[in-house]
Design brief:
Elements lengths: L7 H26 L12 H19 L7
Helix pairs in contact: 1-2
């Protein structure tokens, strides 16, 4: 059995990248406008950290499992 399709990890990487950009953009918006959510640990700026982590993981998976043009 041979695999001639695109790896599912490539699509997971694209999805993580998109989510990472969205969450990171929201976190930066929170920092810039000082309108943080009303939560106990708002001073840790979780959207910035999680957005950055998702973005890095998404870029890793997207680059590592990208479909190659040569066979």
């Amino acid at each position: 059995m041979h695999s001639s399709g695109i790896s599912i990890w490539f699509f997971n990487g694209i999805l993580l990248t998109v989510y990472g950009v969205l969450v990171l953009a929201y976190g930066i918006f929170e920092l810039a406008t000082h309108q943080t959510a009303n939560v106990v640990l708002a001073n840790l700026h979780a959207p910035v950290w999680w957005g950055a982590i998702l973005l890095v993981l998404g870029l890793f998976y997207s680059v590592r499992f990208r479909p190659s043009r040569t066979k």
